[in-house]
Amino acid sequence: MLELLQKKNPTYHIYQVTDLEFDQYAKIITLSDTDAALAALKATPMPKQDNEYVASDKTLEQLALSTTIQNKLFGGLPIQVGYCNGHTSKMNCLEWHQTPELNWFTNDVVLFFGDVREMSNNQYQTSDTKAFLIPANTMILLYGTTLHYAPCQVTAQGYRCLVALIKGVNSMLNDDANQAQSALLATDKWLIAHAESHEANEGAVVGLLGTNYEVKI
Fold first, then answer.
1. What is the pLDDT of residues 52-97, one digit of tens each?
2. CB within 8 A of 180, min separation 6: which ones?
3. Which Pfam families has this protein been placed in (predicted)?
4. Of 92, 131, 136, 156, which residue is the least packed, with the fewest Cβ within 10 Å?
């Protein structure tokens, strides 16, 4: 898979999660008794095009695995567990939170990562990102310093991704917070968009500069 993807996408290097470069952005999480949760994740709806993000899904939140994630990875803080499913293939945007984010994938995907500490005036060069092939059934914890966005599919089947965050992340802003920072789009969600993205057309800050990388399959 990696060799074929790299051949079709020669303009950027695709790393593996076992490469040392991955450690700057996230770490692999291993939890037991995931079969029921994986089946529930695979049963979540798949859009025919683009992607759909649901911040809180009651079926996923009631799983024993979600309690384990809350206690072992978020120190017992209340969390929300949802999903991001779809067929996206371009970088388009980078977002970040002040808190970690857990992702778990049913399919192989490519994720583009950056580091918020390398940003300047809400601008970031796409050439400073790194692309990683994340194997199916891999669970990763993204650090709060990691710039990231929706996965990119590597097959026509698309992807399903469980997303666990501190409860309230991505919820609607109050008026004071909304006026404080232009890149702040939702609670604990900062985002910069590429000029080619639909997010930019909807008013997001255009701060992602350079080539809007696409994963060709």
1. 999 999 999 999 999 999 999 999 999 999 999 999 999 999 999 9
2. none
3. DUF4867
4. 156
Q: What is the residue type of 196?
A: E
Please report the domains of the chain, with CATH numbers, ordered by start residue: 2-88+96-168 (2.60.120)
β partners of residue 141? 27, 102
Rounded to 10°, the helix 35-42/64-73 angle is 110
Residue 69 one-letter amino acid: I
List b or e across 180-189, with b for residues whose CB sees 16 or more CB atoms inside 10 angstroms: eeebbbbbbb
Q: Which two tokens stand for residue 97?
A: 């939170």
Return the SS3 of 86.
strand
133-164: b (≥16 Cβ within 10 Å) or e = bbeeebbbbbbebbbbbbbbbbeeebbbbbbb
